[in-house]
Amino acid sequence: MRAPYYEDDLVTLWHGDCREVTAWLEADVLVTDPPYGISWSTHGGGRDLRNWAPRQAKAGIVGDHSTEARDDVLSMWGDRPAVVFGSPLIAPPAATIQVLVWRKPVDAGVVGARFVWRRDWEAIYLLGAWPRVNPNRSSVLESKGGLERYRTEHPHTKPTALLEGLIAETPEGMIADPFAGSGSTLIAAKMLGRRAVGVEIDEKWCELAARRLAQDSLFGGVA
After folding, report:
1. What gap in Å lies between CA 176 and CA 186, rounded to an integer?
2. What is the spatial distance between Cα 139 and Cα 156, in angstroms, rounded to a whole number?
3. Does the domain made of 6-40+58-215 have the CATH classification 3.40.47.10?
4. Averaged over 47-76, what is the pLDDT?
5. Rounded distance, CA 66 to CA 51, Å?
6. Nearest alpha carbon to residue 179 among 162, 154, 161
7. How far is CA 40 from CA 27, 50, 132, 220, in A?
8. Least confident among 65-69, 160-164, 192-196
9. 1, 39, 6: which is closest to 20 by C-alpha?
10. How far is 28 from 214, CA to CA, in rounded Å?
11. DSSP per residue, 152-205
């Protein structure tokens, strides 16, 4: 059996297709940001408002041509608790039991927007068997500050603080992220002292996630 791409006392990261590398199925709670099925890409053009330099084209997300990867993973996961990010432009997973709203920072959502309204929110789907508790939190989760607080080379990095808040409310046990991307879910789990296992199909994002997980300042607070 091949070795993990990254491993420490709490986190293990594997490189490969999560439908083939299935170590994540040993976990207890799924927290993941899968390909949305929107064929996202940036072709360059325009200017970066921070420094007026021409924007650079970015590659798309592997598997983002459909929700097939997302739906395959949810089928494999079964009825265990799951937190799954998604685009409000695409149908939610079939077994969704509740939808939360992530309200992005004030400088987000300009690219691709129409008319006067920014595309500044995303859906967070809850699936599976969750313990019953008294609801006392808003289902609208906000990220304050600006994009620069959490932006990485990965085009869809989520704020670690947002993921910490979500993971803190999940049942006990190991966290699984089969679409690990830049590693934010794994970092958030680690900062909470939770064990976590992730899989990422694109090696360049595995490298980014490994660097972030290994950095000395990890517990100094990652936005």
Report:
1. 8
2. 21
3. no
4. 65
5. 34
6. 154
7. 29, 22, 36, 33
8. 65-69
9. 1
10. 24
11. -SSTTPPPHHHHHHHHHTSPSS-EEESS-TTSHHHHHHHHTT--EEEEES-HHH
Query: Would you list the domain boundaries of the chain?
Result: 6-40+58-215
Q: Which of 6-20, 54-68, 114-128 has the highest mean pLDDT?
A: 6-20
Of 133, 144, 103, the C-alpha closest to 120 is: 103
The residues facing 84 across adjacent strands are 32, 125
Identify whether the C-beta of residue 174 lies closer than 8 Å to the C-beta of residue 196: yes
Mean pLDDT of 186-210: 96
Residue with tokens 């021409």: 54
Cα–Cα distance for residue pair 13/3, rounded to 1 Å: 10
What is d(CA 177, CA 26) in angstroms, rounded to the nearest whole number? 11
Amino acid identity of residue 168, one-letter, is A
Strands 196-200 and 47-48: unpaired
Give CA 87 to chain center in angstroms: 12
Residue with tokens 């899989």: 199
Number of helices and strands (H, E) in the chain? 4, 11
